[in-house]
Structure to design on (259 residues):
């Protein structure tokens, strides 16, 4: 039976892998890397492998199927995209990994947080075309790195943290969440909130040489965030950002007191 190691590699910095992740990379015969049409994302993975392995295991680029970005039914569209990815990875496993070989998938950030790789692997096993024995190695998430860059905790004492997407931000705000970590928000949905009611800690392309960070009262720094996003996109050709919103606890509290 083929083995698969799903390895979290952090948000992009070659030095942000755990010792366990490095050991797992050195146990792989073939690396399967999604090709989403952004060469830099493949190049960063290749840089990580060059830093932490002896280079003997080939890196195979797996074309990522197109996804409908404007569906009437979002969940159905994602499910269809996942099914197409399953078939693509099944072919790659059959063509590039020996029956008793070890494949590796390098997952941006941590495999447990807003990434579909583990769902794809579950579907592969459920179909039975390419049986796999797999394990998962956690990685440093962009959320952890965001907090580290800003030197903050994600919440005030005893408060919960909600992790959500830009699509669901308004629902979380309406539900009364006070500490919101927001991912997958290319439209910056936070711009629709009361700018004086929230503090913001934002970061883009964290872990890369071109990372950007901005912090302050939402209404004061949103223009800076938009400019920083464009700088990050211009530097690398892509932008992945994440941010923490914290509801201002009482009137008159300055942003500096939240550090």
């Amino acid at each position: 039976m083929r083995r698969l190691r799903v390895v979290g590699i952090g948000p992009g910095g070659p030095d942000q892998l755990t010792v366990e992740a490095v050991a797992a990379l050195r146990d792989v015969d073939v690396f399967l890397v999604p090709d989403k049409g952004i060469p830099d994302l493949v190049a960063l993975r290749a840089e990580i492998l060059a830093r932490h392995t002896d280079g003997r295991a080939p890196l195979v680029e797996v074309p990522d199927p197109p996804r409908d970005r404007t569906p009437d039914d979002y969940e159905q569209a994602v499910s269809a995209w996942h099914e197409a990815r399953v078939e693509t990875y099944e072919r790659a496993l059959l063509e590039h990994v020996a029956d008793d070989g070890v494949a590796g998938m390098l997952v941006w950030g941590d495999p447990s947080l807003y990434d579909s790789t583990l769902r794809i692997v579950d579907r592969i096993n459920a179909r039975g075309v390419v049986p796999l024995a797999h394990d998962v190695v956690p990685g440093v998430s962009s959320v952890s790195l965001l907090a580290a860059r800003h030197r903050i905790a994600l919440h005030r004492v005893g408060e919960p943290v909600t992790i959500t997407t830009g699509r669901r931000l308004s629902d979380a705000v309406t539900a009364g969440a006070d500490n919101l970590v927001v991912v997958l928000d290319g439209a910056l949905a936070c711009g629709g909130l009361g700018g004086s009611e929230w503090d913001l800690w934002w970061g883009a392309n964290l872990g890369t040489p071109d990372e950007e960070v901005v912090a302050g009262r939402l209404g004061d720094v949103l223009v800076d965030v938009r400019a920083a996003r464009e700088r990050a996109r211009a530097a690398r050709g892509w932008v992945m950002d994440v941010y923490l919103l914290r509801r201002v606890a009482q009137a008159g509290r300055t942003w500096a007191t939240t550090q």
Residues 57 and 213 are 35 Å apart (CA to CA). The helical segments are 19-25, 39-52, 74-96, 117-127, 142-150, 169-174, 218-236.
